[in-house]
Amino acid sequence: MTNRHRLARTLLASALLATLAAPMQAHSSEAASEQRQPQFQFDIPSQPLLDALGEFTATTGIAVLRTTEEQLAGQAPAVRGRYTADQAMGLLLQGSGLSFRHGAGSITLERPSGDGTLDLSQIDISASGQQSAFGPVSGYVATAAGTATKTDTPIIETPQSISVVTRDQITDIHAQSLRDVLGYTAGVIATEADDRLTDTFVLRGFQISGSTFRDGMRYMSNIYDGTQEPYGMERVEVLRGASSVLFGQAAPGGIINVVSKLPTREELHEIKAETGSNDRHQLATDHGGALTDTLSYRFTALQRKSDTTTDHVPDDRTYIAPSLTWQPDDATSLTLLASYQKSRTAYVYGLPAEGTVLPNPNGHISRHTFTGEPGYDKSVITAWDIGYRFEHAFNDDLKVRQNLRYFESENDMPSVWLDSFIDPQMTTVARGAQDRVDDSRNFVVDTQLEARFHHQRVEQTVLAGVDYGDRHLQTDRYDYDLTPLNVFNPVYGGTFTARGPAPFSSRNRTRQSGIYLQDQIKFDEKWVLLLGGRQDWAKQKEDALYGNDRSRQDSDAFTTRVGLVYLADNGLAPFVSYSESFEPQAGRSRAGQDFDPTEGEQYEIGIRYQPPGSNALYSAALYQLTRSNVLTTDPVNTNFQVQTGEIRSRGLELEAKADIGSNASVTASYAYTQAEVTKSNSGNEGQKTGGMPRNMFSVWGDYRFGQVGPGELRAGTGVRYVDEVPGLFSTRIVAPSYTLVDAMLGYAMGPWDLTLNVTNLTDEDYLSYTYAAFYGAERQVTAGVAYRW
Fold first, then answer.
1. Regarding predicted confidence, which is higher, 309 or 348?
2. DSSP string, 513-556
3. pTM, full prediction
4. The CATH number of 130-260 is which of 3.50.50.60, 1.10.418.10, 1.40.20.10, 2.170.130.10?
C-alpha cells in the first residue's frame, strides 16, 4: 500500500468516526421546508385566468386564495406537462402582474400594492411523494441525481461532473439505442458507429464497455449480452471520471447508469405505433397507476421488426418490463422489477480500411455491404432479469436500503470475420467463420445504511454500504474457413470448411465484494464537503473449454474520493475534486507474478450555474485523468510485459440544459479531449489514444408553438459535430470528422400525439474505426402516433 493510500485511509477514518460519534437530532423545520415539491401532470389549455386557476385547483387539490374577480381578468397561457405547483402557478401568472405565496394547504395571490383576498372552497390534498433523483423529470433539466453519491443529492451540490438525460429528451430526440440517448451528452462517443449488438463507449478518452450500470448496479456480464432498450428508461446518468469509490472496479472514464421506469401512483397510459425507413414497424405501450392504497404498478412493453442500413442485418426486438411497488406506510417500500428481452440482429464485423477511411483504386465500399453469409450470420439474444429495491426509514434520520438483481442471457451468434485483401486489385478479402454461443449470468446485491446528522451549523449525510457481485460467462466457439468475398460485388453462397474448436472458448467467473463509506457535510448552507473511501476484493478464474489452460487471480484495491463545493447566493457553485478507480488486470509478469490492477486518478475543477427562479443548469469542468499500471513491453524480454505504462487524458467540458418558460427546451454541449500515451516501452509514447475525437459539439432545441388549428404544434432540431477519430486499436488509421442533423415535428390533439422524426437528415456518410471500419446509420425517417389517457 502506498503512503498516499495510508494517509487517505487515516484522514477518512478520522473524519467519519468523528461524524458517527455525534448525536442524532430531529429534522429542523427549515430542512423540512426545503424538500422539493411533488410534481403534477397538467393539461390546462390557454383560457381566461380565472378558469385556468380553477383547473389548477382541480389538478393539484391546492386551494387558491384570490383577489376580486375583476382583478383576475386576462388570458392565461397553456400549461401542459409535469410541473411542481410553484412552477405551474408561475407559468399561469405570466403577464398578469400577480405574485403568490404559500399558506397551509393553499396558495395566496398578491399584487405589489397588497389587495385583499377571497377564499375559494378548499379541496382535500392527496399529495404524492417528492421528486426523486431516481424518478421522472418534467422537461430536460434534472436538478438531482443519485449516481454520483447513491443518495438523493442536488446536482449543484455534487463535486464531480455528471450529466442527466431525461425521459422527455429521450422521447424528443427519438432515441433508439443507448448510443442515441447519449448523442447530445458532452464527451461520450460510441466505439462503433451503428452497433446494434453492444453498448460500448469511450468517455474522457477511455473505453468503458464494462462500466454500464442499471439502477446503480452492474448490469450485464458480457458486452455481447445485448443492448438496453430506451423505451424502458426513465433517465440516463453519466458520471465522468474515476468512480470506483461507490461502484468497485470500473474504467477511469466514468460510469453510465440507466434508471428504469418505476411504478407510479399517478395514472399513466400510452399506446404508440411507429413506421419508417428500412421497413421499420414498432408498437409500444406503457401503463402505470395505483392498484390499491398500498400497491402501484408499471408495465412497459415493445415489439419491433426492422431492417437496418447494412443488408441482411435486422433490428427485431421483443421487450417486456413489469414492476410492482408495495408501500404499506410512508416509511417502507418494496419494488419488484423484472424484464424480458429477445433481440434478433447480426454481428457486423466491419469493413477494410482501404475503401472506407483509406483510398482504394476501386472507390468507396458501400455502407450497405454485408460481408457475411445470409442465413448464417445472426445474433439471437434472449435475456431476462429480476430483482427488487427495498427501503425502510427507522425515523427521519436513519434508513436502510437494499437493491438486488439476477440477470441471465444467452447469445447464439454465428458470424463471419474478415482478413486483409488477397488480390492486387484490392477487391477481395479473405474470410473465416465462427459458431459462437455465449451464456452469462450476473448476480448483484447492494446494501446501504444512510444516516443524517444535524448540528448547529452543519448538516451531514453518512452512507455506509457493502456490495457483492458474482459474474459467470461461458463462451463456446468453433472455427471454419470460408470462401473469400469481393466487397465491391459480393456473391454469397461460400463454402465452409471445418477447422475445429476456437482457442478462446472458455468458462469465466468473477466475484467482487466491497465495503464503502461516504460522508456529505454541509456547512452554513454554503459549503459541501464530500469524503469517501472503499475497499474491494476481486477473484477471477478462467478455464479453457478445450484444453488444459487455466488461470486464477486474486486482487484488492483501496480507492478514495474527496470534493468540495461552494454554494453562492447568485446560483454559482464552483467545485474541486479528486477521485480514484481501479480495474483488475489479467496476466503475469516474466517472474510469474500476477499483474496488479490498473489505477485511475482524476483531478477536476469546475463550476455550475443554476440561475435562481429558472429551470436551467449550466456547467463547465477542467480535468486531468491518468491511468497507471498499464501493460507495456518488458525491455528485458519482449515476449513479456511490465506494468510501467501510463495514459493521460486532459480536457474541457461545457454543458447547458434549460427549460425556457413553458414553450422551449434546449441542451448543448462541447468537449475538448487530449488523451495520449505518456509512458510506454512499446514505441507509442506521445501518441494519441484511440476512439476519442479531440473536439465534440452538439445542440438540440425543442419549441412548442401552442395552438395551431385544432391542436398544438411543436418542433425540434439538433446538430452533432464529431472531430476526426483515431482508430480505437490502430491509431494510425483516422476516421474523418462528420456533422449530423436531426429534426422532429409533433402535433397534439387531446389524447392523440402525432410525431415525425428524422435522424441524419442530410444522409451523411460517416463511420468509425476500431479494428475495422463501421458505417453509421443512414437517414432514418419515422412517423408515429400515440394515444395517451
1. 309
2. EEEEEEEEEEETTTEEEEEEEEEEEEEEEEEESSSS-EEEEEEE
3. 0.84
4. 2.170.130.10
